[in-house]
Amino acid sequence: MNFARTKAFALPLLATLALVGTAAAYADPVLINGNFSGAVNGYTYEPSTVSGWYFSGGTGVQANGSAWGFSNAPGGSGQSAFLQSYNGSINVDKGNPNSFIAQNVGGLNAGQAYTVTFFLEQRPGYGANPVTVSIDGVTETITPPNDDTWTKYSVVFHYDGGSDALNFSVGPGTGTYDNDTGLADVSIAATPEPGTLMLLGTGLLGFAGFARRKFGARNA
Q1: In this structure, what is the dihedral angle of CA atoms 214, 215, 219, 220, given to the nearest 10 degrees?
Q2: Most CB within 10 Å of its CB: which of 32, 71, 190, 215?
Q3: pLDDT score, position 203
Q4: Left if phi > 0, otherwise alpha if psi is -120 to 50, otherwise beta: which for 111?
């Protein structure tokens, strides 16, 4: 065996594998039940049958075709969540001026970037409540357009080791209690830094070129 040739082959291979390992370190965190599946009877406020999420105030889950009138959910469960906020006295749930849906996300690593993706829709025929998305000190308030369709949104954050609670909230409530915003198909994924992706691509291209030179010349 030619030791010099073996060493020359191994060095770019090891460098490329190291870069692949760096990218693989950006493992996706754990979000439970992002499409809000679970038994509900048409629609249910603060359901106990929908795993993973905590519902407070005028929040809950509705099935496709329910009286809420939302478009069919983009996820595969046939259900979506809703957020309602109202400064009134209809009842304890609907009258709560601050409402939220939350979940503690598992597997977040300090120093990594993540992207939260979700869909919002205003309740057809009514107004929409602005929804504030927050996690680890990052907040963004979004109001979906008045077009009776689900709109996809993304929020990027760098986890610094703080709160791992992903929170969708509305309030304080104003206007009619029929103003609602639907929430569907929530997901979260690791977002490798651009520099890591560039290094990984450079390493793979370098290894491919090295292999072509070595093995191409041998097979010619």
Answers
A1: -40
A2: 190
A3: 46
A4: left
Four-way CATH pick for 43-191: 3.90.79.10, 3.40.640.10, 2.60.120.260, 3.90.1150.10: 2.60.120.260
Terminal CA-to-CA distance of the chain, rounded, Å?
21
Query: What is the domain partition of the chain in residue ranges?
Result: 3-25+196-219, 43-191
Residue 166 identity: L
d(CA 44, CA 94): 12
Distance CA 211, CA 196 (A): 22
The overall average pLDDT reported for the chain is 80
Spans in the chain with pLDDT lower than 50:
3-24, 196-208, 210-211
pLDDT at 22: 47
Determine the pLDDT at residue 75.
85
- CA pair distance 197, 20, nearest whole angstrom: 9
pLDDT score, position 197: 44
31 vs 117: CA distance, rounded Å: 12
